[in-house]
Amino acid sequence: MKLPETKQSWIMAGSVLLVVAGLFFAQFVIVKAAGWFKQTRERRITKATDTVTPDRLLARCGAAIEDTTTDVYPVVKRTMRYKISSQRTALFTFTRTADEPQNWVLLSMQDSLGDVSYETPEAKISALPCLDSTR
Question: How far is Cα 108 from Cα 94, in angstroms, rounded to an integer?
Answer without folding.
Answer: 7
